[in-house]
Specification:
By secondary structure, this protein is α/β, with parallel strands linked by helices. The chain contains 10 helices and 5 strands. It has helices at 14-36, 51-59, 74-79, 84-91, 124-138, 157-168, 216-231, 260-269, 272-282, 288-311; strands at 66-68, 145-150, 173-179, 208-212, 237-242.
Length: 327
């Protein structure tokens, strides 16, 4: 189904987009509770507030297309179709997880669904995306790669080197900046001297577009155009989605660098899930009954995945030296 007020591709099911955005929100809320209960080790980086950017970008991709994400990547994984049982098991470090418990929360990957994951080096996924783009072009594989990174990572040299190579070789790569306004401990306005990070794309001769990252229609339309351009051999695009993380950088972040009033304004007036919900109601594509059914189904899915993960065994000690590049 498709809203008459949008220009998104006919293949996009807007009800399914809403379902996934709501799933990401409820999933992150559950992961936060599991962390507070001590069931998730280390820390956790939540994407609550950024659902339109992650789900909107992936909604216009084909099954064969690939993504590379970052430490705040739960939304991207869900948007790309990850199996929740294996997903939660991986976050809890269980042997039944996507990576047998080796990746955990930060280093998630789901190759079966085209999610080539994140890594521990800020911005390094951009270089991997460019390499994958080169392979797609040289071998005529036909897939497009979307590389997600944050506003803080946009200052990393690796991203600029990757954009330059992708540009001169016309590679099918989309550089997607999740600009949630803050790096780990400060505002992006103190880290760059331009209004829009996407302006940097001009230096590499590629389109640079800034969109409202909390407006899923804008995200889908701009990404769809970038995908079309990449698939036609016209090269990369830089997309900056201005959004906001409702939580801290990680669970240890007290958010002293921003005010509670600012947070309340974003949550009360710019919540992407609520904005999309209101538009679907207006277009007659969502009803209270359907929304209730979505909520119930989502909670059942999450409950089942958490149960599966909690009942799964941890990796065996003799598995510690398996599947390594070097010993």
């Amino acid at each position: 189904m498709k809203s008459m007020n949008t220009l998104v591709p006919e293949t996009v099911d807007l009800q399914n987009v809403f379902y996934k955005m709501l799933l990401v929100r409820r999933f992150e809320e559950r992961m936060e509770r599991l962390y507070q209960q001590g069931k998730i080790h280390g820390t956790i980086h939540l994407s609550i507030g950024q659902e339109a950017a992650s789900v909107g970008a992936c909604a216009v991709l084909e099954k064969k297309d690939k993504i590379l994400t970052h430490h705040r990547g739960h939304g991207h994984a869900i948007a790309k179709g990850v199996e929740l049982n294996k997903f939660v098991a991986e976050i809890l470090g269980k042997s039944t997880g996507l990576l047998k418990g080796r990746g955990g929360h930060i280093h998630l990957a789901d190759l079966e669904n085209g999610n080539f994951g994140a890594n521990g080096i800020l911005g390094a996924s951009a270089t991997l995306a460019t390499g994958m783009g080169l392979a797609s072009k040289m071998k005529q594989l036909g897939y497009v790669i979307v590389c997600f990174f944050g506003d803080g990572a946009s200052n990393e040299g690796a991203i600029h080197e990757a954009m330059n190579l992708a540009s001169i070789w016309d590679l099918p790569v989309i550089f997607f900046c999740d600009n949630n306004q803050y790096g780990m401990s400060g505002p992006i306005t103190e880290m760059v001297n331009i209004e829009n990070i996407a302006e940097r794309a001009k230096g590499y001769g590629i389109p640079g577009i800034t969109v409202d990252g909390n407006n899923v229609f804008e995200v889908m339309n701009v990404t769809a155009e970038a995908v079309k351009r990449a698939r036609n051999g016209e090269g990369p695009t830089f997309i900056e989605a201005k959004t906001y993380r409702f939580k801290g950088h990680s669970r240890s972040d007290a958010r002293k660098y921003r005010t509670r009033e600012e947070e309340a304004e974003w949550m009360n007036t710019k919540d992407p899930v609520i904005l999309f919900r209101e538009q679907l109601y207006k277009d007659g594509m969502l009803t209270e009954q359907l929304e209730k059914e979505f909520e119930e189904q989502i909670l059942r899915e999450i409950d089942a995945a958490v149960k599966f993960a909690e009942e799964s065994p941890p990796p065996a000690i003799d598995f510690i030296d398996k599947h390594l590049f070097a010993e």
